Amino acid sequence: MDGEVRIPAAAKWARKDVEALMALPFAELVFRAAEVHREHHNPNEVQASRLLSIKTGGCPEDCGYCSQSAKFKTGLKASKLMDKEVVLTEARRAKTEGASRFCMGAAWRAPKDRDMGELCEMVGEVKALGLETCMTLGMLSEGQAQQLSDAGLDYYNHNIDTSPEYYDKVISTRTFEDRIDTLEKVRGAGMKVCCGGIVGMGEKVDDRAGFLLALANMTPPPESVPINSLMPIEGTPLGNSEPVGAIDFVRLIAVARILMPESYVRLSAGRENMSEEAQALCFLAGANSIFVGDELLTTNNPGQAKDTALFEQLGVMLT
Ligand code: SAM
Ligand code: DTB
Ligand code: SF4
Prior knowledge:
Blueprint: H1 15-22, H2 26-40, E1 45-55, H3 84-96, E2 101-106, H4 116-128, E3 132-136, H5 142-151, E4 155-157, H6 176-188, E5 192-194, E6 197-199, H7 205-216, E7 224-229, H8 246-259, E8 264-267, H9 276-284, E9 289-292, H10 304-314, E10 317-318
């Protein structure tokens, strides 16, 4: 083994540590990630989350990857906040189909105070079904974060999306700092943080390193780290981006696992376009969470039949 890669127990990571990991031969990197994975998790278990878009489209933000921005002609029909009873029906179905966490997403810049009562009721009633709860509603005020936490929300998802350096090539309507600010409010209110991003948006390998470094150096790192592979959406500025190759994607999962040993690393959007073999390598490299079901927010996901076939072959239990 070469002594180049330092793996500090508690210390912050330096860029050179991340770059050294990314430069390792594939087999070496995946082996090290698998070692870290089994020290902290059961490698034969994968956590299953289910997403529901509770408010779709018409978003005022300009995230260059998103089907839901009102700034791009993507053909998506906008709708208003979903009725609580419909959300609960979907949550029950998610539970029956094996999900342990239910993630509700809204295409907002930020929630309106007048919606907070309804959102908090959703949290309480979904939780009462015996599901963990997660929401992703955009930026939060301190008061809104506290209301969600008091309602029992387990996780709040708010992604940094990419490296601080590449960020403004993708989004202009809110800054990287705005996102950190919301994440601090989520932490301050006592909720767990779900924070990750997207690859395949034309970023360089250096940006991928900067993205993982920014996540790993959060104190503490996010409990849940969704790594999305861009689902290209026609009509968005990033609709024709070059996809990330499977081997490079597996490398990123491995580096995320080594940098954030205790976190759930979620193989998120993009499984629809990934082979079973590529997904299996991701689980070997330390991914231990997925979105189940045949839909993400507005795009497709493999669904129950394909996932059952995959996880039976792997001897992996969805938890
Ligand atoms: N509107 C809220 C916000 O942006 O904070 C919540 C929903 S938003 C859709 C949540 C995350 O989904 C984004 O930050 C992005 O990382 C991911 N995402 C959105 N569109 C995607 C796409 N086409 N492909 C991959 N990931 C995507
Ligand atoms: C996250 O990082 N990925 C999820 C969740 N957080 C909200 C969303 C993926 C969306 C993929 C594109 C779509 O379905 O619209
Ligand atoms: Fe709006 Fe979220 Fe899509 Fe950005 S990612 S356009 S904030 S729904």
